[in-house]
Amino acid sequence: MFGLLSKKPVDKLIEVLGREKVSTSLVERKLYSYDATPIPIERALPSAVVFPTSQEDVQKLVKVCYEEEIPIFPRGAGSGLTGGAVPTLEKGVVVSFERMDKFQVDVDNATAVVEPGVITYEFQQEVERFGLFYPPDPSSFKYSTIGGNIAENAGGPRCLKYGVTREYVLGLTAVIKEGEVIKTGNPVIKDVAGYDITKLFVGSEGTLGLITSAVLKLIPKPKARGTALILFKNLEDVGRVVTRIMTSGIFPSALEFMDKDAIRAVEEFKPIGLPKDVSALLLVEVDGSPQSVKEELKAVEELAKAMGLEVKVAEDEESAEKLWTARKSLGPALGNLRTGKINEDVVVPRVYLSEAIRDYRKVAEKYGLLMVIFGHIGDGNLHVNLLYDKKNKEEEERAERAVDEIFEITLRYNGSITGEHGVGLTKRKFLEYQFGPVGMEILRGIKKVFDPKNLFNPGKVITL
Q: What pTM was computed for the model?
């Protein structure tokens, strides 16, 4: 175990970067030792928080850290849910990229060069001024950063149609071992030269190096959007409807699911008039030309009614926005039901959705827990929330045991332990369930190539 970082290495960081970029304030060190992970996790008070403003700063920082063997914990906005940005060793520094927040849009080439500290929402708003579109929309998009999104390969509702963050990263620049710089990819759609190192960095959670800029692909902004609400009396019908929609020629931009407890939670938190006497609901969003949106909404309505389901089509943008506000309020809304929450973002193939949801609920019944399920059901990505009383240690332990069974069920249906939150600390022990010993050996080998001293976000994703 590393001890607390001595004054000498901290002084060296201050010497190469400047005192204004290295904070040893106890308050800041405490503030930057947390992220949004809702369950207790291992964490440590870092020896310093570093605020680089350029790639050169990052190179100097990594060079010193490699010479002095100082663990490096990169951080975006701290909105992650699996402990990915949390420092776990006292002899370590948190690297906050909040001051690297510049970007440049190339309208003619429909690309942008973006520093890691750029706020996702601000970037989206700017590119839309040019009629362009950056689709990834994690629920934290109004405050999460592009760097953090890339590190976690962030998703969101629109990823059903447009794909996750990796689909939009054409290239990047990163600082790896000894302060070396690696540049991958180019601002082109087709680039099949060599191994795809760009995609290797996306989702690596800061364990391979520090990303200092990325080239992002932009696409034309859809001219119109429309939203429909489908209500269910029987939970078993949800999977069947999703399959029918996705095989009907309709391609929704988002297909979101909320079970009855999720509906109740959001109505108590921020009421908008959702019915509480149903087992579940689906939010269906389509986008494209005004005419195609109108036609696809009509097709969704006819399909659902033919299956005996109630459908409501949002009459205008304000009505649609209300529905999406309800969906995006679910995270904080669950805090009204119980004080503790374990939120898993598992993924199963769509054809197994009904069976998987049924099996998850059996686990909740077995352990006497309240379970709330919602998520991006069109791509099989479910947020399975186990709620408990934080003051009840025995109940918390039951919730933790239930999680093991949730993952076992997910993998039995050929799914994944995470669809967008990443592995971080909280899912590390489950990664081997999915990859197996040979897969884990390969992951560890990749880590050692980029970071032989295991200084980049040590202990996250995998252990060496």
A: 0.94
